[in-house]
Design brief:
The protein is α+β, with helices and mostly antiparallel strands. Helices cover about 40% and strands about 25% of the residues. Strand 12, helix 12 and strand 13 form a beta-alpha-beta unit.
């Protein structure tokens, strides 16, 4: 073999395409019910977008971005997350001049991060994301969380809890930064190099460190909830009331900060309990300053991102994958080489009537055609040829019951299409 797929990527093969379609159909359906419209942004953007939007102290920017120079010596980055590109498009297209809130979603958007590949988390993965621009009320986050829980529940996933936190705003977050530095000051030498670098630039990022020694140290750190200003505190309390009113189980978790610098106030993750540990299926939050930071007006916003590979993996792990659909309804078999053209033409007639149809493309014998039709899961085989065809008739055989019937060749396609339609309605 000449080469293999790059590390951290995988092919979507035809045998599992139906799972992606099932998931994407549910997402489109819910997006329409909640009033979200689709947006598609480029796979790559100017690197500056992510430096300004995602944050220069985040692991995504410092360690995980695929950045390169194009032939015009411009720095280009494959998008490591979906929100910054959506905000850039919102600003560039002046969507803020439309009635607000502007609600958009992106689906199966490729995301690229250079990190150690693991189950459900690849260097190239695909996200379903939603962004709501123009709503400052906590009802925005409550609506997004409701949609997420509805989606995951409709897929059969259970034991789900929403973990929420508030990381404050530019008014109250500096106060927490000071308290955090005061707590970490004497312990800093025991932390990793990344956390030591973050101490002055962005101490909040320390709370997101995945190293066990750092996690143990910050466990006793002051809670950001104790530093919230009155507005942020009221916003967070209102969100909790809205979630309770919808019957959505949630837990306040002061350790959640998310890995992106643009978040303000609400951050959340949907956690699924798997044995002793909780698995984060997706997350999001509010980013009230990002539109303005990227050159737009002062417009609040919130959103989330969900990895499709992670969800599909959990569906497989829990046996929640639907049965593979059959590929065809009718197989048109030719009786003898001299009837291949007639069978080929008849297959096209059935397809014109919206009947899923296959016919012989490999020069198979009649016996081999029947075996192939069975492998395809065809319900019926149409026999073109023999003495029936000489009489101007087409024979139809039910592969399950082995029953046979004949139709006049002139309107056989229409009658077979009607028979299939009646069977599906029944």
């Amino acid at each position: 073999m000449l080469t293999q797929a790059p590390k951290g990527t995988r092919d979507m093969l035809p045998d599992e395409a139906y799972l992606w379609h099932m998931l994407e159909d549910k997402m489109r359906e819910l997006a329409a019910l909640w009033g979200y419209r689709e947006i598609r942004t480029p796979v790559f953007e100017h690197t500056e977008l992510f430096l300004r939007g995602v944050g220069s102290t985040t692991d995504i920017v410092t360690k995980e971005m695929y950045t390169f120079k194009d032939k015009g010596d411009r720095s280009i980055t494959l998008k490591p997350e979906g929100t910054a590109g959506a905000v850039r498009a919102f600003v560039e297209a002046h969507m803020y001049a439309e009635p607000l809130p502007a609600k958009v979603y992106y689906l199966a958007a490729p995301i690229f991060r250079y990190e150690n590949p693991q189950a459900g988390r690849l260097r190239e993965h695909h996200q379903f994301g939603m962004e709501c621009f123009g709503g400052k009320d906590p009802a925005v986050e409550a609506e997004l969380i409701n949609l997420l829980m509805t989606l995951l529940g409709s897929l059969g996933l259970s034991n789900l809890t929403v973990h929420i936190n508030s990381i404050g705003c530019k008014c109250c977050r500096p106060r927490f930064g000071e308290a955090l530095r005061a707590y970490l000051g004497d312990r800093l030498q025991d932390m990793c190099e990344d956390c030591q670098a973050r101490f002055e630039k962005n101490p909040l990022r320390i709370l997101d460190c995945k190293q066990e020694k750092c996690k143990a140290i910050v466990k006793g750190a002051p809670s950001i909830l104790d530093s919230l200003c009155d507005d942020c505190k009221a916003h967070f309390e209102s969100l909790q009331k809205l979630l309770s009113a919808q019957g959505i189980p949630f837990s306040v978790d002061p350790t959640i900060v998310r890995g992106l610098d643009y978040y303000t106030r609400t951050v959340f993750e949907v956690i699924m309990q798997t044995g002793r540990e909780g698995l984060a299926l997706c997350g999001g939050g509010r980013y009230d300053n990002l539109v303005e930071e990227l050159g737009g007006p002062d417009i609040p916003a919130a959103g989330f991102g969900l990895g499709l590979e992670r969800i599909l993996l959990e569906l497989k792990n829990q046996g929640l994958v639907p049965e593979k659909p059959t590929l065809t309804d009718v197989y048109v078999a030719n009786i003898g080489e001299e009837r291949r053209t007639d069978a080929f033409v008849f297959a096209q007639k059935l397809r014109a009537l919206k009947v899923r149809t296959e016919s012989d493309l490999c020069g198979r014998s009649l016996k081999a055609q029947f075996k192939y039709a069975d492998k395809l899961g065809a319900q019926y085989v149409v026999l073109v040829g023999g003495e029936e065809f000489e009489r101007g008739a087409i024979k139809l055989r039910d592969l399950q019951t082995r029953e046979e019937c004949e139709y006049p060749a002139v309107d056989a396609a229409a009658q077979i299409a009607a028979k299939l339609s009646e069977g599906k309605e029944a």
